[in-house]
Design goal:
alpha/beta, Arc Repressor Mutant, subunit A, seven-stranded mixed β-sheet, Rossmann fold, 9 strands, DNA-binding, homodimer
Chain lengths: ~200, ~200
DNA sequence: CCGTATTCGATAAAAACATATCGATACACG
DNA sequence: CGTGTATCGATATGTTTTTATCGAATACGG
């Protein structure tokens, strides 16, 4: 139960998701070897990752599936739902608002903001972006998702921070500068793509 | 001009995008210091990245903007357009089909496939997924983008590979197993989110 | 009840990556 | 024409992450 590295943290949700697929199969136990093969990771890596959060498996048996799931969910804070708002309800923003998969990891998107307000997307309201600073505090959202064009991404980020968000998930293709107290995750799709293209050569 | 590490490769498109914003400003030269400040990266890191692809900058002056852009574009293969198809035209798939930013990095999405064909999204046709193996070869697409539910992601990947794609961009929340000859980039949004949530604590 | 195969956990080695330091170069300015 | 300063490139150091190795523990078969 020591500290968890950033790269380990990235894999934990993947383990969790995989383990959940085992539940319907009534498999009680799972070995690190088995996990590593299913996910295409190194065997030792998996064991090390699991060691950092779980309280151990048993030789010849492996880890107890349900206990491991519970540990992972607890660690990742599933259940303690974080609320988020999306700024920029274009195609990508809409897609994220409709996306079902976030609930599994404890995120609830409560509203959207856009220059063009609309009655609602996926049952959630879309307000005028001008009212962001006034509405956001009472929503209790701690995460801001940025899906606006590159030109205004930094402005939106600044405004979100001023309104009190603790974390920013940035889908625009520019790097965003923030105070140290705020966490940022850049999700530059165009960059990811370039990496893939290059690998293909 | 040595080999380029994976993490460097991830940053190159970011540099490229930033440099392009300088063109309208008629700025002839740019220093690594300036880039590092604008993007929030280490100064030395930027210099090292650029050294690995460019043929050098000049002290007191910096790098020549246009030459650097040309070098980056050449290295990243912009111009040599790769074609891609999207399998799974739900909300996320639609968003990607509409997204304008990919062209900048040399990707053209030529068609979509779904269990429910539709007349077209963003001017691109959406075919029945059953006809994937017959239509894909004549399209000349080398990249397959997977935006289907987790349960069928592996099946779709297998079929894409059988149809001859060289790379897969996987947006489903499961890890996909592929032969070594095929490049995969997993874009697990739920996992990214978990990392962000955890950072906020 | 004992040997064997499997699996865990810990330590050590290796690799990848980021950061720091330093001399060299080229322009600016007096 | 010399000095100062900004900036590059290279080397070195430190950190993080992955991979390899080894002993110990435990269930299962005989």
């Amino acid at each position: 139960m020591q500290s968890v590295s950033k790269s380990t943290l990235k894999r934990l949700p993947i383990y969790l998701h995989y383990l959940k697929t085992l539940v319907p199969l009534d498999q009680q136990n799972i070995s690190a070897t088995q996990i590593s093969q299913a996910l295409g990771l190194g065997e030792v890596l998996v064991r090390k990752d699991l060691a950092s959060i779980s309280n151990g498996g048993r030789p010849k048996i492996g880890y107890e599936v349900h206990a491991l799931i519970a540990t992972l969910e607890d660690y990742l804070g599933v259940g303690k739902v974080s609320k988020a708002v999306i700024v920029g309800v274009g195609r990508l923003g809409q897609a994220l608002m409709m996306y079902k998969g976030f609930g599994e990891f404890g995120l609830e998107i409560v509203a959207g903001f856009d220059v063009r307000p609309s009655p609602g997307v996926g049952g959630k309201p879309v307000y005028d972006v001008k009212s962001l600073s006034s509405l956001l505090p009472q929503m209790g959202a701690s995460i801001g998702i940025i899906t606006v064009p590159a030109a205004v991404a930094q402005d939106v980020a600044d405004e979100l921070i001023r309104a009190g968000v603790k974390g920013i998930w940035n889908f625009s293709p520019v790097h965003i500068v923030v105070p140290q107290a705020v966490a940022v995750k850049n999700e530059n799709l165009a960059a990811s793509l370039a990496v893939l293209s290059k690998q293909i050569k």
